[in-house]
Amino acid sequence: MCGIAGYIGKKNLYNSNIIKTLNSMRYRGPDNQSWLKIEKENFNVYLLHSRLSIIDLDERSNQPFKFENYTIIFNGEIYNYIEIREKLEKFGYRFLTNSDTEVLLKAYIEYGENCVHHFNGMWAFAIWDDHKEKLFLSRDRFGEKPLYYLNENRGLYFGSEVKAVRNLSSKKLSINYNYLKRYLVYGYKFLNKTNETFFNHLYRLESGTNMILEKNNHKTYKYWRPKIEINKNLSYNDALDHARKHFLNSIELRLRSDVPLAFCLSGGIDSASIVSIAKKYFNYDVVTFSIIDKDERYNELDNISETIKDLNCDHFLIELDYK
Question: Within the chain, what is the greatest distance between any pair of CA atoms?
């Protein structure tokens, strides 16, 4: 988890606002905090980043990351970055780091806005294209990584969290009571029906969406929607084999990391399957964390203990305290 924030518009931001914003994102990325100002004739671009190092721990991969006329800030992970990098190398690209950040940026240089169609991952990023004077914002297909924005007359603020946008803009955000009421009536299932938030004039960039900000153009569009394709000729065994293949591939890609990974073990079949495959199939030295609820209706300790016993793995049981 990293944190990103930024602004594009006619204002000159106060250094105190920038430092306050970076400090508010420190818990998202304690390994490095940096920012960059890009001054143009009639507007400014600010890019802020708070880094949690996962891939290529060297400071050369700190952000904002710049290459020639392009600068990126990025929260997330591109799981298939190795395969994309190999393809780009065949096109003549050379790489200065081992990070997925550099791969993402150079994929944009090669493919433009269509780069997102090549990514298997989770992301919220902003790329400044100095040649075209264009800011490109994007959020992953299922909205795993958050991205909020606040549009005003003199510019647009964006960030990973509401407080990052608030701190950078110095705006006192008013509560969106209509949204709050609908949430209280309909529950969490209502939350993603629109791009509204609990604050007026503050919006979410929706999942599977790109936003383009240029001098005389501002557009937002869906680059991906889920599709259901039913193959009635597929046998049960074929479906089983395909599901297993995709499941294994998905776990293998997500095990790519330059730091140790931990697993949330809930006691359900999904988390138990993921942990077991990582341990038994890919020989990963798994460590699990489990929340133990004292309420018997939600207590999964027996199932968790069975998985831990089967895998003989390091584990941490965290009991909820209601006091």
Answer: 65
Place of tokens 């949430």: 183
Q: How large is the average pLDDT for residues 90-117?
A: 97
Residue 313 is among the residues annotated as catalytic for this protein: no
What is the Cα 307 distance to its own chain's centre? 29
Q: Which of 2, 115, 264, 313 is catalytic?
A: 2
C-beta of residue 43 within 8 angstroms of C-beta of residue 155: yes
Rounded distance, CA 244 to CA 251, Å? 11
Cis ω before 226 (30° cut-off from 0): no
pLDDT tens digit sequence for 128-147 = 999 999 999 999 999 999 99
| Backbone phi and psi for residue 87, each to the nearest 5 degrees, phi listed first | -70, -40
Inform me whether the pLDDT recorded for 321 exceeds 80. no
State residue 147 phi and psi, 5-degree precision. -155, 120
pTM of the entire predicted model: 0.93
